[in-house]
Amino acid sequence: MNTLFKDLLGLTNFVSDIYAGIKKFFVPERAYAWQTLIYLSIFSWIISYFATGSIRDTIAFFGWLFLIAGTAWYTTDDPARIPGTYMPVGAVITGFLVSVFAFGHNDKNVLTTNTIVFWPTISALITAIPEFFEGSGTDAKTQIPKPEDRQKIVVLVASSMLLSCWIQFYFVVNNWVAEYPSLLSDDFKRSTFVIRTESPLKVSPNGAAILKEMQPKVEREINKQPWSQVERWLQNANANIANIGQKVLQEKRLKDKEEKNLWRIEPRITNPNPRKKDEYNLDILSIWTGPSSDPRGYYLRQSCQIRPIAESTNRGTTQKPEQTSLIAEIECGPISKPIVGVPPAQR
Length: 347
Description:
This protein is an alpha+beta fold. Helices cover 50% and strands 14% of the residues. It has ten helices and seven strands.
């Protein structure tokens, strides 16, 4: 019985200690405490929810200030350091809140690019600011940091700024890839700062898409058309292919991409068989003019064979001999892989 009573008493004391700890954490002993600032922040956000216009923004602004001040106060009472540095964990948390307040709190997504980029630098500055003050509260006075502290401040702020620069560089490269996806098909072996984590693309996505969209349009211009008309079309192939290519680049897939301005569409016409002067090879080249690991650049090619075929024009009667006319037939092959080098000259 005594053992049971002791167990119940111990359990009661355990619950009481937990309750006392929770109460101490949430209920400040005096009004001038970090909990007061946090509660003012929560109260401000609740009030701003029911307000409108500039009043809502003003109340929310002070809510952010209360949250930042309360968090900074709580995390600096007994600061825990990031291993290998003298930066407090609280400075990192406060720096994140300041970064969100400055760059992301007006957006639906608080984790904007600027929020992440400036976070390390702001955290370092928050860590360095107390070194310029002596004392605490209303008795604090400005001072010049000691020589041994100056080096730590410079190293911390400089390394944090360098980290911010690398994060910004990541977002820049990511934006390049989003706007210029054909860069993914290039070779990064000689790059000193870009490492490929996925297998390279065998075919440039937009370069192949341009040729794929152009094929049916070119076929409609040539296939089953009178041969004399097709020959005139081929004589003016540069302008005709340029017009079709311009229409393709303005279609939905590419019109919103900056990359569309870095592709040039050109034709190459050859005669594969000198004995048959009325047969042609039409090579449509999608030429990349953007940055490339090879200074010569690269291009994609789709070859089409154009030849005349006879078509009967009088099949309804048997009294007159059938008359035949020449019409064009076109057959296009697959799109090539990226070809490194300067495109062949026009003839």
